[in-house]
């Protein structure tokens, strides 16, 4: 996985430059963008990172950018900055998945610590997303019937109960279970179920 990076999105050039300089002074590379459109056009959604974004910007607000990232499934930790913050605004940001809300002018040491924390969080989030994708990919070749049986296995039903519920034989259910195991290249059905549950995969 690529090294995580920091994205600074703010329409105030002085704020952008000062924040990039601050992070660079402690060895944290940051990229600055004047607005959400410029940022999105340069964003590689496969590279982990932390986004520091102003709330109020022309055309597209920080909240709208956050909503777009959520729809895209890009798990960037988002830190909002605003000179006009209030409790309602910070609550909205956190409800939509932001990790922090910092008022301008910010304390430099606080900002550095927030960024360092969220670069680690970004690495974890992107690794988790990759694990979820891998599990989802392993399930793609399953037939509708195999997926149906797998859902019942996830619910904790043994083969006898599954057979009774589906009106088929235990042997048929066991054949499907074996196919599920082979197609997903799982060590066992139990480990497959564990991977599905741990990575919050919808079957």
Walk me through the topology.
Layout: E1 5-9, H1 13-25, E2 30-33, H2 36-42, E3 49-54, H3 62-72, E4 78-82, H4 87-95, E5 100-103, H5 108-139, H6 144-154, H7 159-166, H8 170-183, H9 189-198
Parallel strand pairs: 1-2, 1-3, 3-4, 4-5
Quick synopsis:
By secondary structure, the chain is α/β, with parallel strands linked by helices.
Query: Can you tell me the CATH architecture of the largest domain?
Result: 3-Layer(aba) Sandwich
CATH domain topology of the largest domain? Rossmann fold
CATH class of the largest domain: Alpha Beta
Strand order, main sheet: write it out.
2-1-3-4-5
Helix content: 55-70%
Q: Give the full name of the CATH homologous superfamily of the largest domain.
A: Response regulator
Strand content: 5-15%
The biggest sheet amounts to:
5 strands, parallel
Backbone shape: elongated
**C-alpha end-to-end distance:** 27 Å
What is the element string, with H for helices and E for strands? EHEHEHEHEHHHHH
**Helix count from the secondary structure assignment:** 9
Task: Estimate nothing, just give the exact number of structural domains.
Answer: 2
Taking all Cα atoms into account, the compactness measure Rg is: 23 Å
Would you tell me the structural class of the helices and strands? alpha/beta
What's the mean pLDDT score?
A: 91
Q: Identify low-pLDDT runs.
A: none
Number of DSSP strands?
Answer: 5
């Amino acid at each position: 996985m690529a090294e995580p990076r920091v994205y600074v999105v703010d329409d105030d050039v002085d704020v952008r430059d000062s924040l990039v300089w601050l992070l660079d002074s402690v060895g944290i590379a940051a990229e600055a963008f004047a607005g959400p459109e410029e940022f999105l056009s340069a964003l590689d959604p496969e590279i982990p990172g932390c986004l520091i974004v102003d709330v109020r910007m022309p055309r597209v607000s920080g909240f709208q950018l956050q909503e777009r990232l959520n729809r895209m499934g890009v798990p960037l930790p988002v830190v909002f900055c605003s000179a006009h913050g209030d409790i309602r605004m910070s609550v909205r940001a956190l409800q939509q998945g932001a990790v922090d809300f910092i008022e301008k002018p910010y304390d430099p040491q606080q900002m550095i610590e927030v960024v360092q924390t969220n670069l680690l969080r970004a690495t974890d989030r992107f690794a988790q997303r990759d694990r979820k994708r891998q599990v989802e990919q392993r399930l793609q070749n399953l037939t509708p019937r195999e997926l149906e049986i797998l859902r019942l296995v996830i619910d904790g039903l043994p083969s006898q109960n599954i057979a009774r519920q589906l009106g088929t034989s235990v042997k048929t259910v066991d054949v499907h279970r074996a196919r599920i195991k082979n197609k997903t290249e799982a060590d066992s059905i139990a480990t497959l179920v564990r991977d599905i549950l741990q990575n919050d995969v919808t079957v």
